[in-house]
Design goal:
Chain A: Its EC number is 1.12.99.6. Chain A: It is an enzyme of class 1 (oxidoreductase). Chain A: It catalyses: H2 + A = AH2. The complex is a heterodimer. In chain A, about 25% of the residues lie in helices and about 15% in strands. Chain A contains ten helices and 13 strands. Chain A has helices spanning about 15-20, 25-30, 50-60, 95-100, 115, 160-170, 185, 195-200, 280-295, 300-305, and strands at about 1-5, 35-40, 65-70, 75, 85, 90-95, 105-110, 130, 135, 140, 150, 270, 270-275. The longest helix of chain A is centred in the last third of the chain and has 13 residues, at about 280-295. By secondary structure, chain B is α+β, with helices and mostly antiparallel strands. Chains A and B meet through helix 1, helix 2, helix 3 and strand 5 of A and helix 1, helix 2, helix 4, helix 6 and helix 7 of B.
Chain lengths: ~325, ~475
């Protein structure tokens, strides 16, 4: 299986995250899956003319291209020219290269939320008219009219990428959700396995960052709505955003880059957070929340406002 | 003869270099950053705290540095300093990223060029092929594993890497306890074992104690020794020499000051005035006048009419400066650093290795100093009017954020990244940027590759 990886308009962080894969490492994992990296901008020795030849051979069909991975959004500006990102040395925009190479590729994989939907590159009025490969935000569109696997995430977990590529290389079907994301991680919510679950159960909330309570009510956490298995499989050994003490900002979702409020503040109407869990009737949520809040044990209420566990669980001695 | 080199890979991001050559040597170089994203524009009108989410995503390799600069700029605007313990944990998170970046640069970006057939027949070539061939070399694989394990520091303290929200103006969001301290200690012991057993092939303190170039060159152990052997053979000290004018904003600001000093150095310590920083736009595809970053604007010229790069040209007191690990070691007054001042490829790479060894010692000190129960976060409010600068050191050198807040919103946000300094285009006086100057005299081909990569450019940060 031949794979070409392009870095379009993004930060390169999904490659940096990929290199955090462990047991085995990213290169071994690709090798074991029978994937040959024809060219990767951060890893390949080939540069300049040597690199141009590899890309040209694939674009002209002289060398088969099984998988095209694109990291970063595609800048269409200025004026539809794509000149905000030229693929250096080629006189062609990255937009043109993505279109040329994808026409030859059996599978196209968008690595990261930028490549999937536009992401942070499309934030704040989208100064470069950036879009995803097959989506413009949550709408189908973008620069390609073909199926694309959207490994959304900012950045992507190394496992999401290595496992998707292994499945494609092994001829397995990668089941996708309604936004093109692999279901093996998108069927989970960030809430699943969150260490703050007990606080959530009682709506025992943190009010300031570094307090260990639930961050949904005040600190902008939308882990109950965001897809991702971030709290089921760890990041960098044993981490996740909520484990690190800061809110989930739903980086696997289109449009996450421009919430209508500050990222670390929950928008409220009459003191009640907007954006409650999507698949739960609001009235039931409110009823349960007020009940559980009233029943909060002192241990949980106290710990929620501290930066560490200050009241341990009560021991039941015989 | 004119040559265009691109896509110039194994640099973070997009780079194109245009060379004029005569009699087989470069006589003039122009460096182009061909990607523009417009982060400074995106930030306009947002809640100031959003900078902590948006700016790290400028760069996937120095994401923490961007976090640290944003947190520091916001803190300056708020009149809030982190607690001492919070500052130490932010320093540890930042140091782990910089150490990981130095490892990535040496193994994945810089060394593979010496495995090229160009060097077949050199006495060291076979060993370099075995250790550093791109994606296959045994040293590359070991380094990737060691890096992934080092970055468990992020899993423990910063949630994940890259792109964390753990670093805040008042400190860090995660208060480490005794268990985290034990785990961090174990992670750092493992990393030291790798550094001493594989990369340096000897005690880090011994390497840190080197005080002159001859003793450096006779190190002779580990992959560092292999690099020094080939560097001596190829004369890499004189290839791509720098101007000898170095800037550091000071790295890892702790209660008693930065661990690596801040300052300007040119033949000796000079007065550094952050107010003397100006971004010149004469050769970039940007509209407007040269300005200090507090007054700077980012207005791309969609016609790309005059100029040759999206990169602005920052100048200090009207002149370019070189930034990076070598600059930090020089400004900090390390004996070996000082002796290498003005040097080329070898000096930049050895400066990075020296800093890597010293960073390990710092990280160990920070972990040993963890006191469970200390205050890791100070609280403060965001002013509706104010401004602040956040000056930090990324792996690649001096990184500055300048924010202006009006009516509770971001009214101006300017960023000067390390590679903006190093890979700047010419200024209004026609003075080339540091890389453009360093390339003059190199032979087109693999020598140009070495010079460019010796700076460890980060192009995604450069234009942002």
């Amino acid at each position: 299986m031949n794979l070409i990886w392009l870095q379009a308009s993004g930060c390169g962080g999904c490659t940096m995250s990929l290199l955090c894969a462990e047991s085995p490492g990213a290169l071994e994992m690709l090798e074991d899956a029978g994937i040959r990296l024809l060219w990767h901008p951060a890893l390949s020795v080939e540069t300049g003319e040597e690199a141009r030849k590899i890309l040209e051979d694939a674009a002209e069909g002289r060398v088969p291209l099984d998988i095209l991975c694109v990291e970063g959004a595609v800048a269409r500006g200025p004026g539809g020219s794509g000149r905000f990102q030229m693929l250096s040395g080629t006189g062609l925009s990255m937009m043109a290269w993505v279109q040329r190479l994808s026409a030859r590729a059996r599978h196209v994989v968008a690595v990261g939320t930028c490549a999937a939907y536009g992401g942070v590159t499309a934030a704040g009025g989208n100064p470069t008219d950036a879009v995803g490969l097959a989506y413009d935000g949550a709408r189908e569109g973008g620069v390609l009219d073909r199926p694309v696997v959207n490994i959304a995430g900012c950045p992507t977990h190394p496992g999401w990428v290595t496992e998707t590529l292994s499945m494609l290389a092994g001829g397995e079907v990668v089941e996708l959700d309604g936004l093109g994301r692999p279901r093996f991680y998108a069927d989970h919510l960030v809430h699943h396995g969150c260490p703050k679950n007990e606080f959530y159960e009682y709506k025992a909330s943190a009010r300031d960052l570094s307090e260990i309570g639930c961050m949904m009510e005040n600190l902008g956490c939308i882990g109950t709505q965001a897809v991702g298995d971030c709290n089921i499989r760890p990041w960098n050994g044993e981490g996740s955003c909520t484990r690190g003490g800061y809110p989930c900002i739903s980086c696997t979702s289109p449009g996450f880059e421009d919430p209508s409020h500050a990222f670390v503040e929950t928008p409220k109407i009459a003191g009640i957070p907007v954006g409650l869990p999507t698949d739960m009737p609001k009235a039931w949520f409110m009823a349960l929340a007020s009940l559980s809040k009233a029943a909060t044990p002192a241990r949980i209420g106290t710990n929620a406002r501290a930066d560490r566990v200050v009241v341990p669980p009560t021991l039941r001695k015989k | 003869m004119k040559l265009v080199v691109g896509p110039f890979n194994r640099v973070e991001g997009d780079l194109e270099v245009t060379l004029e050559a005569e009699d087989g040597v470069v006589t003039e170089a122009r460096v182009n950053a061909p990607l523009y994203r417009g982060f400074e524009v995106m930030l306009q009108g947002r809640d100031p705290r959003d900078a902590l989410v948006i700016t790290p995503r400028i760069c996937g390799i120095c994401s923490i540095s961007q976090s640290a600069a944003a947190a520091s700029a916001l803190g300056a605007a708020m009149g809030l300093a982190p607690t001492p313990a919070g500052a130490d944990m932010a320093a540890l998170i930042h140091a782990a990223e910089n150490a990981a970046d130095h490892l990535t640069h040496f193994h994945l970006f810089f060394m593979p060029d010496f495995a090229r057939p160009d060097y077949a027949g050199r006495p060291w070539h076979g060993r370099v092929v075995e250790r550093f061939t791109a994606m296959e070399g045994s040293a590359q694989r070991q380094a990737i594993t060691a890096r992934a394990e080092l970055l468990h520091v992020m899993g423990l303290l910063a949630g994940k890497w890259p792109h964390t929200l753990a670093i805040q103006p008042g400190g860090v969001t995660k208060a480490p306890g005794a268990r985290e301290k034990a785990r961090l200690t174990a992670t750092l012991r493992a990393f030291r074992r790798y550094l001493e057993g594989v990369l340096f092939g000897g005690p880090l303190e011994e390497f840190i104690g080197l005080s002159d170039v001859p003793s450096l060159m006779s190190w002779g152990r580990g992959d560092v020794g292999l690099f020094l052997t080939l560097a001596a053979d190829l004369g890499l000290m004189d290839l791509g020499r720098g101007s000898g004018r170095y800037l550091s904003f000071g790295a890892y600001r702790r209660e008693r000051g930065p661990f690596f000093a801040s300052g300007l150095w040119e033949g000796g310590a000079q007065v550094f005035d952050p107010g003397a920083i100006v971004e010149d736009l004469s050769h970039s595809w940007m509209e407007g006048e040269a300005a200090h970053p507090y007054d700077g604007r980012t207005e791309p010229d969609p016609q790309m009419a005059s100029g040759y790069s999206w990169c602005k040209a920052p100048r200090l007191g009207g002149r370019p400066v070189e930034v990076g690990a070598l600059a930090r070691m020089v400004v900090d007054g390390h004996a070996l650093g000082l002796e290498m001042a003005g040097g080329g490829v070898l000096a930049r790479v050895a400066g990075r290795l020296l800093e890597l060894a010293r960073t390990q010692v710092l990280m160990e000190e920070l972990v040993a100093g963890i006191v469970p129960g200390a205050e890791y976060m100070a609280r403060g409010g965001m002013p509706s009017e104010g401004r602040g600068a956040g000056l930090v050191e990324a792996a690649r050198g001096a990184l500055g954020h300048w924010i202006r807040i009006e009516k509770g919103r971001i009214a101006g946000y300017q960023i000067i990244a390390p590679t903006t300094w190093n890979f700047s285009p010419r200024d209004a006086g026609g003075v080339p940027g540091p890389l453009e100057a360093a390339l003059v005299g190199a032979k087109p081909g693999v020598e140009v590759q070495h010079v460019v990569r010796s700076f460890d450019p980060c192009m995604v940060c450069t234009v942002h």
